[in-house]
DNA sequence: ATGCAACTGACAGATCGCTATCATTAGAGG
DNA sequence: CCTCTAATGATAGCGATCTGTCAGTTGCAT
């Protein structure tokens, strides 16, 4: 049996909603906090289990970034890259991809893909040098 | 005293040599194996300690890549990017940087830097579909 | 050559990200 | 409404990475 019966639990829906609303890659911990706004007693184990099953279903895509634990975003988006805020640690999506101009690898190397990360301060952090916080979305 | 006396031990020199000879980013474990060719009884704790101090001295730069533990390379090189072999897991340096064409971040975002990773198979792994191994440099 | 403290190696232990276990809860087909 | 069992929440445990401890070693100033 490749696919056991899948139940549509409130927890799983809360997790899906969290990813849809965030519209940026979330770590399991971020997904937990976000989904807990929909289902308060949600546990971290359930988040890991559902991320796993949403990956298997192809509903989520993994987004790994240096030095951090893997994050996940809703699958099916066009090729894009990410921005990582060094201050708040959140990750954002960027528009297009400059993949036309990639460095040339040495002879014999086969390039299968690429990943571009921009680093810096997000709008909220860049503007909050003295602590101007708009919303606590964390 | 910001700088206690630094001794130039054989172990530290072996670690420096390992990075110089490798000419690519090494993980602590890779650095251990490589440096043990210069100093057999080297321990992993010493590698971590010296990587830390070489970072503080500015002799090493950290190179983090998604999903892997941080690697390190000799500092002071020109801006460049990296290639990660999906087969053998080793990391290589690439030539130029196409930084002229970066995706534009949303309004208010401050870009401080970028990191580009190419993925695929390195020359050795791409050519060894049936196991043509040249040298065991691991 | 001598002495001392920086350094080392071995390994215990902290930390992190994730998985396994298990009693309990709750989808969903009948 | 009942039943069956997938799914959950709590938490113990695991592997990987890195740090702390400490007795013993060794670079280096004298």
Describe this structure in words.
Two copies of one chain form a homodimer. The longest helix of chain A has 13 residues, at 10-22. Chain A is globular. The first copy, chain A, has helices at 10-22, 28-36, 44-56, 123-127; strands at residues 60-63, 71-74, 82-85, 91-93, 110-121. With 138 residues, chain A is an alpha+beta fold. Chain A contains four helices and five strands; from the N terminus they run αααβββββα. In chain A, α2 (28-36) packs across α3. The A-B interface holds A 64-67, 70, 80-81, 83, 86, 92, 94-98, 100-123, 126-127 and B 64-67, 70, 80-81, 83, 86, 92, 94-98, 100-123, 126-127. β5 of chain A pairs antiparallel with β5 (110-121) of chain B, so a sheet runs across the interface. Chain A binds a DNA duplex (30 and 30 nucleotides) through α1 and α3.
């Amino acid at each position: 049996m490749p696919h056991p019966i899948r139940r549509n639990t409130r927890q799983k829906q809360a997790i899906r909603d969290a990813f849809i609303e965030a519209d940026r890659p979330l770590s399991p911990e971020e997904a937990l906090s976000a989904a807990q706004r929909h289902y308060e007693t949600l546990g971290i184990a359930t988040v890991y289990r559902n991320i796993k099953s949403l990956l298997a279903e192809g509903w989520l895509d993994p987004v790994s970034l240096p030095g951090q634990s893997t994050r996940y975003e809703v699958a099916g988006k066009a090729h894009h890259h990410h921005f990582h805020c060094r201050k708040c640690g959140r990750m954002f999506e960027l528009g297009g991809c400059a993949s036309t101009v990639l460095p040339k690898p040495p002879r014999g190397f086969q390039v299968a893909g690429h990943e571009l990360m921009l680093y810096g301060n997000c709008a909220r952090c860049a503007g909050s040098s003295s602590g101007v916080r708009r919303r606590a979305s964390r």
